[in-house]
Amino acid sequence: MTISDSGLPTLDAVADNSPQVTNEPPKQPNVHEQRWQSYLRDCSELINMVDPLEVAGRIVKVTGLVMVATGIKMPIGGACFIPLQDGGRVEAEVVGFDGENLLLMPQTALEGVTPGAKVFSMEIAETVPKPQIGRPPRRRAQDRARHFPVGDGLLGRVVDAAGNPLDGLGPIPGDVTAPLNGRVINPLQRAPIEDTLDVGVRAINAMLTVGRGQRMGLFAGSGVGKSVLLGMMARYTTADVIVVGLIGERGREVQEFIEQILGPEGLARSVVVAAPADVSALMRLQGASYATAIAERFRQQGKNVLLIMDSLTRYAMAQREIALAIGEPPATKGYPPSVFAKLPALVERTGNGARGEGSITAFYTVLTEGDDQQDPIADSARAILDGHIVLNRSLAESGHYPAIDIEQSISRAMHNITSKEHQQAARMLKQWYSRYLRNQDLIAVGAYQPGSDPMLDIAIRKRDDINAFLQQDIDECADMQHSLQQLANTLTL
């Protein structure tokens, strides 16, 4: 600032402090922009007031267990629901189609469904993939189907075929879900069966050695100790996780298996999926697939899983019920062809995973009607499994438990996972046992003369020792080392 001699500011200082004068006109509001913004706000409010578009079909026919729906397009295996007038709903699955009509199989009872009732598709919410998991995109139709809870939150819990808890302990923790049908493993990428599995049952460990990742069938009629033997293996088997699928059995057996056979210690490392006989055929079918999906999830985590499914026959019967209801013709003793296609598809999901993953050792019970080993389901299961354990009714009636018939039973992986000495010892005991049974009537009536058959003479002397070796109490655990030692002691002359 410049100051004159009189102390007043000069003109240049006054010019510096004066406001700058510009030639730009003041900015006017854009009327067109304001009108468009107001119009868009009105449109947004109108959109929020409009009800969403509903795509629905309607029920035009109900015959037995099959509902016919029209006006909606869904793929095979798609899930839908029918709202009821009382506020409930019936969930169903698409099991076939006839022209433009869909064939639906309900998961629950059909009470409350009216003619013309609406049918809505159950949309699957896409979950956000987590970077650390690296979940692949859902390209398959199975991946876009319904997902069910799997993972560590199921340990110690009892759920139904839809993943709903049955034990009254609240909802299932965790957000890990998976579809019912997992991805097929390349057979060349599967790890071979190399390690033995200790099941805690002396007759199985020594005579029918099971490998880790093997699929075994337990063939038995009704009332021969099948459930008790399963419970012994569930409690004594050296596995990280146990998955039990009770499919189509009596509802009373579910609680008995959990409380009396499995016990608190066994339940703590187990997951029980219960689909008893009073639920629909679709839920029984879904229960077996769900139990297998849970086991597959634990196998991906590198754990060794024991899968017990009781029973494979009820699974086949559920598929037969569905197939006959939608019009598939029967082929073998009332079983449609789709039954024999479903069995290997379910069984092949178990076993060893790829190298670096865990394993699923599976025991499937197969009910033999009238103790007929040539039943079509038993014959088909025997062909697709890695071995079978046959329970004999005559042994059970004589008080011989577990009633394992070592003559008719076999483990197809035993020769790869046991030593030559073990195989020779098991073969020798089996020969003695078989030789005695074939001449039992002659021995009973006194028609056999000692010295006629040296092997039979040994079998007669060792009969009590062999029976004691093959029998075992439910509370007795016989590990692999103890079983082999008892086998050697039994063979000692």
Automatic annotation (TrEMBL):
Reaction catalysed by this enzyme = ATP + H2O + cellular proteinSide 1 = ADP + phosphate + cellular proteinSide 2
Could you say which EC number(s) this protein's record lists?
A: 7.1.2.2
PROSITE patterns in the record, alphabetically? ATPASE_ALPHA_BETA (PS00152)
- Give the enzyme's main class according to its UniProt record, as a single word: translocase
In terms of superkingdom, the source organism counts as Bacteria
Which positions fall inside the AAA+ ATPase domain?
A: 212-395
**Which InterPro entries does the record cross-reference, listed alphabetically?**
AAA+_ATPase, ATPase_a/bsu_AS, ATPase_alpha/beta_chains, ATPase_F1/V1/A1_a/bsu_nucl-bd, ATPase_T3SS_FliI/YscN, FliI_clade1, P-loop_NTPase, T3SS_ATPase_C
Stretches for region Disordered:
1-31
- Coarse class of the primary localization is cytoplasm
Keyword vocabulary terms for this entry: ATP synthesis, ATP-binding, Bacterial flagellum biogenesis, Bacterial flagellum protein export, Cell projection, Cilium, Cytoplasm, Flagellum, Hydrogen ion transport, Ion transport, Nucleotide-binding, Protein transport, Translocase, Transport
Pfam families listed in its UniProt record: ATP-synt_ab, T3SS_ATPase_C
Please name the Gene3D superfamilies in this protein's record: 3.40.50.12240
Where can this protein be found? Cytoplasm
For this protein, the record's NCBIfam families field holds: FliI_clade1 (TIGR03496), fliI_yscN (TIGR01026)
Question: Which family does the entry's similarity section mention?
Answer: Belongs to the ATPase alpha/beta chains family.
What name is this protein filed under?
Answer: Flagellum-specific ATP synthase
